[in-house]
Amino acid sequence: MNFENFNVHLFKEINSLAGNNLYLDMFMIFSAQYLIFIIPIYLLYLWFRKDKEFSLYVFISVLLSLSISMGIGAFYYHPRPFSIGLGTTLINHSPDSSFPSDHTTTIFAFALPFLFFKRYREGIVFVSIASLVGFSRVFCGVHFPLDIVGGFVVALMTSFILYIFKKPLFFWISKVTDEYQNILGKIKILKNY
User: I need a labelling partner for 135 at 20 to 30 A (CA). Which of 10, 63, 149, 177 fits?
Assistant: First the structure.
């Protein structure tokens, strides 16, 4: 069995669970479409919790990983399951390239830095959520399993390279946050006049 046949076989196994239980379908639709919004919510939480530098670092990981994922999708077209008449589709999606999964790339690019920086409690929670997002995208019929693996690999490689260069990256990030604090300070002075 080659990779493509395995990909289709595994998709059919996972996607065959769709359409059998309304509550499971609703949970998976929510996971596939809305769990990703945890990213801006938690990044803002980190920012206002005085963890600005790490917040920006994770934001860069997400932005860079997503850019790479979208670049791959622009140059390599792989049809989505519903584009070739496969499976049960629970959510609407444009028939653009399915590989790699942008949702999976984005949420793993958000989750993995927590593990790299030994913030294991947050990291384990977010990697679990990212895994659920990836699984739900297949369950809902908009991705093949290898799209999810591809998204994970893009996020892993990008976030690991950023981790290797964390010292110079944090140097520039600290300059940005210092400038932000300076601007806030000037605004407060102006308000007092």
Answer: 63
CB atoms within 10 A of CB 76: 11
Number of domains in the chain: 1
Provide the pLDDT for residue 22: 95
Residues in Cβ contact with 110 at an 8 Å cutoff, skipping those fewer than 6 apart = 38, 39, 42, 43, 58, 61, 62, 126, 130
Does residue 23 come out as left (phi exceeding 0), alpha (psi in the -120 to 50 range) or beta?
alpha
Is the pLDDT assigned to residue 192 strictly greater than 80? Answer: no
Output Rg (C-alpha) for the chain, integer angstroms: 19
Is 173 inside any structural domain? no
Q: What is the pTM of this model?
A: 0.89
For the chain, the straight-line distance linking the first and the last C-alpha, in angstroms and rounded, comes to 74
Helix (H, G, I), strand (E, B) or coil at 100: coil
15's CB contacts (< 8 A; 6+ apart) are: 81, 86, 87, 88, 138, 139, 141
Residue 187 forms part of a structural domain:
no
- Domain membership of residue 118 (yes or no) is yes
